[in-house]
Amino acid sequence: MNNTLTDRIACAFARPAMLFAACALAMTIAFVPGTALAGADDEGDLDAPNAAAADGGAGAATAQEDTAADDAVHVAADGKAASMDGSPFALEDFSRSQVGSNGDVDGAYAGYRYFVSDKPGSLAVIATDACIVVYVPNDVAEQGGFDKSSSESRSYLKSLLIALDSENSKGGSVLTRQGNWIFSSEPIVEYEGVEYRFDQELKSGEFYACVIGADGSDVTDTGNPSHVRLTHADMATLAPADEVSVVGAPTGFVALTSFLQGIDYSPLWVTLKTTLTAIVFIFILGLAAAYFSLRIPARAQDIADSIFTIPMVLPPTVCGFLLLLAFGKNTALGQWFIDIGFPLIFSWQATVIAAVVVAFPLMYRSARGAFENLDPNMLDAARTLGWSNGKIFFKLMLPLSWSSIAAGTVLSFARALGEFGATLFLAGNYLGITRTIPIAIYFEWMNGNTDVAMFWTAIIMVFSFIVILFINLWSRRTTKYRRGADA
């Protein structure tokens, strides 16, 4: 609500308790030079009367306009710089620290600390669940045109910090206008028993922002009465707006072209190479295992079938762990591969092995089921005609079972294409070597690159659809040919 100065004075005298509280707050702030507080909806300087308030509430209107002007922030495509319409200053060289360090430095506890720069005088922000402390050294503020006593100037800085922080959050906590914002030009700010220290040269040529109890205690300890939850810290360079170049992200077709050019396509080639190689082994081994499992005694068939099928029911991570135990350097087999100069662990070959083991049961079960459904009298009749087992297999069993075999091939290919757990366990995540598309999707999403993760998701879905459609059409053509021959 916008009130005139007369209304506010009358209201204050009508409420003595409120007047006393306001005076006490003003006296408290007076003992903290260089510090200003701003609430969620008030950009005014509580250190001194807001001069703009004397013009019939224009100061509050300006604050509202500044809040609405967040949309006028221009963020660089790389998320490292930002400017704002009307702001005399801008930010560049922005960086964000999600975690810091907590421990002694040269035998003394320095608090929870974030590395800021190799030189003093950088703008820094420490965000906690209790407050957001913004440190702007006097010389930096003077050179950049930032006036901490101006609600408009603080609003500009808020908007710039919020925009850059959100751009670089990667799924973490972000700055918002809500909460207690403290702007300070002093290197040490105390708030509710916690000291926020800036420009702390804890090591030679290394300057940190630290959070420590006023009594020197660890405020990250939940048992500490002054405990605060630290979320992150931001660092940036404040400079005059005309000295900062902010190149925004492209739009339209240019944006699409830029996005596609910026993607590393190595996961696609690794996936294709791995899957195509694996499907050859899966196809041959699956058919061979299905054929020979039917030619052994019934009791042995049950054991063999259980062994060949178990990778299908085990979690992929368990399969990967077992493979890691089998081919690790602590086993005779793994050591032998190392001795011959061909270590399997964390190599491209490991991705093939993982895909083969996990997808093999699908091919085996499909082929065996197809072979079991063949008429045994027909096979015996072929033998009476002098056909060898090899001729019966290739000329009779395969053509008659092709529909099921093609389906098994499709399922195995899709399973190998989407393999993640066993591959990550056995082969790891090495860009250009073992990073397949499923692994790329996971790590891109974890790193906050949702657009890239969605791109790879679309690629693998489209590719899977095309391959499955091709094999189904081929299978249908083969089935028609077989029916024509039977007629």
TrEMBL record:
One of its GO terms (cellular component) is plasma membrane. The chain crosses the membrane at residues 276-294, 306-328, 340-364, 392-414, 453-474. Belongs to the binding-protein-dependent transport system permease family. CysTW subfamily. The gene is modB. Pfam families: BPD_transp_1 (PF00528). CDD domains: TM_PBP2. Residues 268-471 form the ABC transmembrane type-1 domain. This is Molybdate ABC transporter permease subunit. It comes from the Bacteria. It is a multi-pass membrane protein. InterPro entries: MetI-like (IPR000515), MetI-like_sf (IPR035906), ModB_ABC (IPR011867). One of its GO terms (molecular function) is molybdate ion transmembrane transporter activity. The keyword Transmembrane applies. Keywords: Cell membrane, Membrane, Molybdenum, Signal, Transmembrane, Transmembrane helix, Transport. Residues 1-38 form the signal peptide. It is found in: Cell membrane. Its main location: membrane.
